[in-house]
Description:
By secondary structure, chain A is α/β, with parallel strands linked by helices. Helices cover about 45% and strands about 10% of the residues of chain A.
Amino acid sequence: MPRKTLEIPLSVEHLSILDEKGKVDKNLEPKIPKDRLLRLHRMMKQGRAFDQRMLSLQRQGRIGTFPPVSGQEASQLGIVAAMDPEDWMVPAFREMTAELWRGRSMESILISANGFNEGADAEDGEGPATDFPVSVPVGSQMLHAVGIAWGIQYRKSDRVVATFFGDGATSEGDFHEAMNFAGVWRLPVLFVCQNNQWAISIPRKDQTRSETLAQKAIAYGFPGIQVDGNDVLAVYAAAVEAVDRARKGEGPTLIECVTYRMSVHTTADDPKRYRTDEEVDAWKKKDPVERFEKYLLSKKHLTKKKIASLEEDIEGEIKEAVKRAEEKMGTIGDPLEMFDHLYAELSPRLKQQRDALERELSELQEDSNHG
Amino acid sequence: MAKMTMVQALNLALRQEMERDDRVIVLGEDVGVDGGVFRITDGLHEAFGRQRVLDTPLAEAGIVGMSVGMAAYGLRPVCEIQFSGFIYQAFHQIENHAARLRWRSRGRFTVPMVLRAPYGGGVRALEHHSESREAYWAHTPGLKMVMPSGPRNARALLVSAIRDPDPVIFYEAKALYRAYREEVPEDEETLPIGESQIVREGDDVTMISYGAMVRPTLEAAEDLSQSDGIEAEVVDLLTLSPLDDEKFSRSVKKTGHAVIVHEAPGSFGPGAEILSRLAEKSFFYLEEPVLRITGFDIVIPLFAREKAYIPDARRIAHQTRKMMKRG
Lengths: 371, 327
Ligand SMILES: Cc1ncc(C[n+]2csc(CCOP(=O)(O)OP(=O)(O)O)c2C)c(N)n1
Ligand SMILES: [Mg+2]
């Protein structure tokens, strides 16, 4: 019998609960308490409004380059809403709304976006101690989640780790190594792929010949599920299952959130070079925020009036945050502090360099006073 | 001749080499439809098609490893790593294979590839987008390391790199991409890899630099000349490996003073090698210890503080002046 068919799991589920019109599948609807639903809604609105404010600040030259998140709010919030604050999050670079949910302040995000290392300071409540800072090298952070998860298993803790990455990241070797390691040791990791259809100018179909990204988990021996990433209920339901599996020691899950990057890749990008307005418009109809709002309106958890006053509150908070950030930025920026935090202790050579810079800055200052 | 930015000049080099030689293949992330995030490959996709300009999946080891195979097969891949800060994902392909396939196969296979990558600070970029880590590649046997300093020499050196029989790492300073325009001849122009240039003549001090630091070094030289009558000879290395140590050593024999300027951290940086060559070749002519003006031995800060990190004309002039007044 030289040739036969081996039975391996070869299907992935796709989960969708709330459709584009805001209609819910009653059988699948997760039981989420009203206050949590409202917090989710608030965070979505805040994430969207803050993103748009950042875009306009960037256009005015008041912050530097940043990667907008608009369109991906549900993909992020559905995951973090299913986690405890004590769980771990290892983000990529486009997880602003997830970070906000976890407690990072808008000020700290603005300070980072202005090129101050202080944006990652923990002191002003910039997120829980179990959250990693953003990671720009695509795919590199997933292995850290695996290491944390190994530690959790070793210490017999019941914490879980969620790591975020994009569709493009699934082409990097690090992605495959992380998935493989997590599978081998059945580690408590949620691999959250935000398939936003684009990796800068490369469309999802040119990234991999695989039909779905979720199916990549099969090769590593654990489940993968594809969810409508613009449906926060579906993302949440999938995340709850994955967290549950992880806490019970049943190992990792890959969740592919099918979503869309509604804005530019970063503010240095021009999407008109590679995608059409029609495509963007088609996805706008699937907007995660509007959809969820319709759902909450139909459940009578919200009224149009409440939404309007919420929007006003959020605008006020953002304004305040911008003001506070700009005030703080006026008080920081001492160049000598660039030597901080590289080592536990500065080497003698680095101290010399720091002292020499200090001297030089004052000499140059004197020169310009005289000149 | 047309006035071009470095972006346009590099594009010209690629376009002409692709026209001339169908073995030349461009590959990398976003180099096709998008024309590269810095637009170096703009229009090549339309002109030469998907077979000659490959938008690859997002994987640097894939890009470099595949280029090694293409080159060994007889093609002339020119791959782009979108930012040199992401070259490390391909480190093993460069060190273990690109640099040594010729050696390992006793010359049976060769790797005539070019790896282009933008490097350096000064453009208010995100983390990992501003480093200057050329020392890694200058340190690696089997590679050539080229770092142009302006549109015209960038074009000529890229042509030479593409035609070179060995792997060339080609670092382009982002800060120079659109900084200024220069006359670039439409007709073919090459520059020999491994040869530096004297870009300003002077008898008092030799200033050795490369890449983005050549401009502020020249500016500092002008300042020293005007305000102190100090005449600096400025050497633009253009290639780090193989290092042309003849010109700067000869210059130092004349001036007795040497200043080395680079953006990379000082310790174990290119300046350390230059200094050693000076110690070997011009030691008895040095009237003062050699001065290195470099990045500090720290991670380059995010952009709010990057100006304090990167050497500029003021810092270069100030430190050089102090050295010259001591003597
Ligand atoms: C290792 C690495 N290579 C290249 C880049 C440049 N880059 C930044 S984001 C990006 C595309 C990422 O696509 P995806 O993983 O889908 O995430 P998205 O940007 O869509 O959120 C690229 C190529 C990088 N940051 N890191
Ligand atoms: Mg993507």
